[in-house]
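Data availability (excerpt). All sequences and predicted token strings are deposited with the supplementary files. A representative entry, Nickel pincer cofactor biosynthesis protein LarB, is shown inline so that the format can be inspected without opening the archive.
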Amino acid sequence: MDIKETRELLESVKNGSLDIEKALKKLEDLPFKDLGYAKIDNHRELRVGYPEVIYCAGKTVEQVKGIVEFMITKGNNILGTRASKEIYEAVKLICPKAEYNDKARTITIKNKEVETSSTYIAIVTAGTSDIPVAEEAVVTAEIFGNKVERIYDVGVAGIHRLFDRLNVIRQAKVIVVVAGMEGALASVLGGLVDKPIIAVPTSVGYGANFGGLSALLCMLNSCASGVSVVNIDNGFGAGYLSSMINKL
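Structure token line:
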């Protein structure tokens, strides 16, 4: 339940169109619902503006199904990250409108329309191998009501490809840069644009990449200002933060 819905509920009680007992029924699961294996935070959208997201990795198929079954009753849009195809197939059985992005490994269920931002987020990758992490950011940003422009495979090994799309990138309100190996693209873009950059290091690369550590350290040490960094392969975190910035 978000702020708008809570206000409408209280107005309904005030004007007499909803009795107190029915209103209490709607509020009985606030602030959380205890399923035994999970405590679903129904109060989160009211507090921070976005509903709880299901991190599917490490959960059983039955646990994710149980969480989704309850969350559907609240009418919010639902996002599940790091979901296997097996989990998606199980969720699809209880909610036929569930959609799966196999690159991002995300499940989305759209239960209500969210106003889409007039400004957009540019999500940029250095290489094609970085697309799965970028797609997680795309799906996250879109389900929270943001326009997104994808600019993929424009890394520094062929920097002329970046310049070809620079006008689109510069018009974004916030930019997410996804890169592995040495992660140089975030710093390069930081010297070319006047918008905040969220850098996402990926685990793409050979041995000395150390599973994304080299890209993480390079991004943290960017000589260009205006670059912030999220965790390795954390497309969700970048998509969430970019949505907050885009909607300021």
